[in-house]
Model the fold of this input.
Amino acid sequence: MLKRTKRAQGLGIPATIAFAVGTMIGAGVFTLSGLVIDKTGPAAIMSYLIGGLIICFSGLSYASLASIFPEDGGGYLYAREMLGKYPGFLTGWGMYVFSTIATAFVLLGFGIYLNLLLSISIDIRILALLALLLVAALNFRGLSDAGMVEFGLVITKVAILILLVILGLFTIEPLDLSPIDPYGTESIIYGATMVFFAYTGFQVAAMMAGEVKESSKKVPLAIMASIAIVTTIYVGVIIALLAARLPQYGSQSVFDAAIVLLGTSGGILIAFAATISTISSANANVVGMSRITMEMASEKQLPGRYAKLRNG
Done:
């Protein structure tokens, strides 16, 4: 095994939670929430709660393992230590490929939302590439800078969503929730399967555990706190969408609901939140992927140069 590069434990609990929340709050709220309501009606609230409850069990497993193995790598590290090098290798590559594909889709979303926000029509692939270069440059400066930017982006988009949620809570009426399950119990379960992937980003906190202060204590806390925060926001957004009483629900319902509840400025705010959300999700994914490759390289499962750390 190669000698590991000493990594500065510079991340505190706020930045660690921000990375996890930043990964999770993306398509799951801006695009998927309206689609879930279309399939389940007001029972979408229950679908998101069930999804959050199920992911809590996975989160508890990760939290337990993170307290035992307070190092970078997340699922790859746990599979390697518990099952052996070959299963760890397969897990690491699987996580890397999944994160790469997810990041590509997220950055294409950046192009879509930026065109919408600025009323332009630039090829979304060009905008996605520019966003990727921006994220790469940010991470080249080091994890501390990436963490500060991530925290700022997450606070901004969460604040905008909370404003939408508050307006929804003050606007919603009992009739907006009736009937609670117009499409039957099966639709609730179907909705829960739709939203499950939107919760999986908490794993990023475990991937960078080796660079978190007192990681054996703080990473488990960050994992569970991020799941709780995101579940609350998801359910709140569903309530806001129902309060808007849209004629139909789909992938742009959050944007439409913001216009109903806040006027034209609400649509601009949501488009802005969605745009920065794609950057924060991509940033968190890049950080997580880089920590997996470093761990795999330190085990000689990738070329040794990938184990080098430039700037913490």
Remarks:
- The radius of gyration is 20 Å.
- The mean pLDDT is 88.
- The first helix runs from residue 13 to 24.
- Residues 1 and 300 are 6 Å apart (CA to CA).
